[in-house]
Design brief:
This protein has one domain (about 25-155): Lipocalin (Beta Barrel), CATH 2.40.128. The longest helix is centred in the first third of the chain and has 18 residues, at about 1-20. It is mainly β. It is about 10% helix and about 45% strand.
Length: about 160
């Protein structure tokens, strides 16, 4: 009888655990909507490699576009420091896709010179991400720079 009760309790726990393994909300591009302050850093070991720190802003329209403008305010832009040489970049227009692959809340950014993978963080009740983490996945074209880059971002506010 004792073994029967222990077995029934174990089965109930397994059933409860299986029931809680349901998928989260399927996130969409609208989860990134507004401007986010970001910081990234790189570590490279190749001969002649250029290490880089980077801070800036990325602004998302909620429809798959990273919005940049050469006017003021510049919306998306950054300042990078590559081995002691600072460089400012504005008008960073690009695209993004919340694909939920390989996991919920994951996706890709596609810039002129690189592609990044990201994961959404701190999703509020309205489905808006208040942060994300990202890593470089691919350099494209003849663009140069570090091959290992990662960072994170926090929500600044709505796109105006």
């Amino acid at each position: 009888m004792k073994y029967l009760l222990v077995g029934a309790a174990a089965a109930a726990l397994l059933a409860a655990a299986a029931g809680s393994a349901q998928a989260q909300t399927t996130y969409t591009n609208s989860a990134l909507n507004g401007c986010y302050a970001h910081h990234s850093t790189s570590v490279d070991t190749e001969p002649g490699a250029v290490n880089r720190d980077n801070v800036g802003t990325l602004c998302f329209d909620g429809n798959g576009n990273i919005v940049g403008t050469s006017g003021t305010p510049a919306l998306s832009g950054h300042v990078s420091n590559s081995d002691g040489t600072a460089k400012t970049t504005t008008d960073e227009a690009a695209t993004y896709a919340v694909t939920n692959t390989p996991g919920d809340g994951m996706g890709t950014f596609t810039f002129r010179c690189n592609s990044d993978a990201f994961v959404l963080k701190n999703i509020d009740a309205n489905g808006l991400a208040h942060g994300f983490d990202f890593i470089l996945t691919q350099r494209t074209g003849k663009c140069s720079g570090p091959e290992v880059i990662g960072g994170g971002a926090e929500y600044q506010g709505p796109l105006k």
